Amino acid sequence: MNPLNRRLGREWLTMVKMVELYCNARHAHAESTLCRECQEFLDYAEVRLQKCPYGLDKPTCANCPIHCYKPGQRARAKMIMRYSGPRMLFRHPYLAIAHKLDGFRRVWHPRELTRDQRAKARER
To answer: Which of 18, 44, 88, 89 is the most exposed place for a label (fewest CB within 10 A)?
Structure first.
């Protein structure tokens, strides 16, 4: 498997674990499942990850110049990450540290790139 595909898979797994931590602590339900609202948010996040215009060069959402989440979903993501972020270091240290390191990735807004650079990015 391509290391960049693994990075996106790890980012998806990080999102799943964060939502699970948040949902298990905040909503009354069986611990092995997510509530309907959290599952809907996770489905939305998966679609957004798949449709990210940066593809394999995707930065963390907090450092992305293009915010593709709707305002309501973005606020929910922020709330989930504020709760789960500090707890991830104890529950899933590898994912938390890898996510923090991914936060240092720098990407350019597509309008800042030249035509040749945009063509090369599409080829990847």
So the answer is: 89
Q: Give the whole-angstrom CA distance, residue 122 versus residue 116.
A: 10
The answer to whether 84 and 23 are in contact (CB under 8 A) is no
Q: Work out whether the CA dihedral 87, 44, 2, 62 comes out positive or negative.
A: negative
φ/ψ of 96, rounded to 5, equals: -65, -45
Please state which of the ranges 29-33, 66-70, 72-76, 83-87 shows the lowest mean pLDDT: 29-33
pTM to 2 decimal places: 0.79
For the chain, the domains span: 3-123
Look at residue 1 and tell me whether its pLDDT is greater than 50: no
C-alpha to C-alpha distance for 31 and 65, rounded to whole angstroms: 35
Strands (E), the chain: none
Q: Which residues of 49-85 are buried (b: 16+ CB within 10 A; e: fewer)?
A: beebebeeebbbbeebeeeebeeeeeebbeebbeebe
